[in-house]
Structures are given as C-alpha cells and as structure tokens.
C-alpha cells in the first residue's frame, strides 16, 4: 500500500477540523451535506481603461498576465466585451478584463495567502467590510494595487493595477459565509470603527 504524500492545504484542514464542528453547533446542521462550502475563487483585473483605440498595449497586457499568473499559479484568460457601450468607450470584441478561476487546493492556498500575507500589507488597513456578501453568501472585495502580494517585485512592474476577488460558496447565505470567513481568519472591520 502506497502512503498518501499529498497533504491538505492548511486552511482546508482548519475548515474541516475547527470550522465545521463550530458551524454544525452554531447553525444546528446535523447532516454534513447541509454545510456550506467554498466552491471557487475568481480573481479578475479590468483593463478597459488602459485601451488605446481599442487596442491593449503589450506591456500592460504582459504586466497584468504576469501579476495574475504569479499570485494565482494559473494563466489568466482574456475576457472580451460582449457589447458596445458608448459611455464607457467600449466596443464589442475589445479586451475588457483578465480572469482566473481557482478551485480545489489552489483555491485554499490562495485564500490562505490572501488572509495571512496580502491583507496585513494593505496600507491603512482597518479590516474588510462584512457587508459585501450577496444573497447566496458569495463575498466580493477589491484590492487597489498588486503590491500587497509578496510575490510581486514592484521594481520590475511598469504600472500598478487593482483586482477584484470573489469568494464563491455553495449552499450558503451571508450569515453562514461570514461565519466561515471569520473563523478562517478573515479580518473583518469592527462595527464601532
């Protein structure tokens, strides 16, 4: 018999060993299939404002791709505009964003690095809003620059850009998702701040 050399991500082990029992007690969930679970994390960076004559400069494209690939471990895909919007000066088919979808172990490693490495490096950080949940319990947040990630060498970056991070849950609601993220160490702002 071959021993399993694959180890669980630290945050996943914490979820299974600590958060699940607390959650079953807190929300009176008897069946394991009732438990909400993190299904995926979407990381995207909008590039529409960097377009010149509906073309993306190669150095901007390469910087965004390198940044997202470095912090996620996956190559991002380019999202094209689905329709023209005159107010935003966007034409159908023009590049509008780069997105990465993380699942499984990569998702857990990313959330662990987000909570424990990137967030403490945010300037004047007072905690994340705990109101950014939708009805399904998905959490959305934004970062204004990529410098908060320790993997990014800002001396080699041409320009700074932000990113949106969406943490998606299955079988959840805002209260349950907030409980899970708080137990995993997400630094939410206090109500009195």
**CATH-defined superfamily:** Ribosomal protein L5
DSSP helical segment count: 4
Give the SSE string. Answer: HEEEHEEHEEH
CATH topology: 50s Ribosomal Protein L5, Chain: A
Strand order of the largest sheet: 4-5-1-7-6
Structural class by SSE content: alpha+beta
- Give the total of beta strands: 7
**Whole-number count of domains:** 1
Could you describe the largest sheet, including whether it forms a barrel?
Answer: 5 strands, antiparallel
Low-confidence stretches: none
Strand content: 15-25%
What's the overall geometry? globular
What is the correct CATH architecture?
A: 2-Layer Sandwich
Gyration radius, in Å: 19 Å
Give the integer mean of the pLDDT values: 88
Q: Separation of termini?
A: 55 Å
Can you identify the CATH class? Alpha Beta
The portion of residues assigned to helices is: 25-40%
């Amino acid at each position: 018999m071959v021993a399993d050399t694959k180890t669980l991500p630290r945050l996943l082990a914490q979820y299974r060993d600590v958060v699940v029992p607390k959650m079953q007690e807190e929300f009176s969930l008897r069946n394991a299939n009732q438990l909400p679970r993190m299904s995926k994390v979407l990381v995207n960076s909008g590039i529409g404002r960097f377009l010149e004559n509906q073309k993306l400069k190669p150095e901007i494209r390469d910087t965004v791709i390198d940044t997202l690939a470095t912090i996620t471990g996956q190559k991002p895909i380019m999202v094209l505009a689905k329709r023209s919007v005159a107010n935003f000066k966007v034409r159908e088919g023009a590049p509008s964003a780069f997105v990465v979808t993380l699942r499984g172990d990569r998702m857990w490693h990313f959330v662990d690095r987000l909570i424990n490495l990137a967030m403490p490096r945010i300037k004047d950080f007072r905690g994340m809003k705990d109101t950014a949940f939708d009805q399904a319990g998905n959490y959305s947040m934004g970062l204004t620059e990529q410098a908060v990630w320790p993997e990014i060498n800002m001396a080699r970056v041409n320009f700074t850009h932000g990113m949106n991070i969406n943490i998606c849950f299955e079988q959840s609601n805002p209260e349950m998702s907030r409980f899970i993220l708080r137990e995993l160490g997400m630094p939410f702002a206090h109500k009195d701040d």
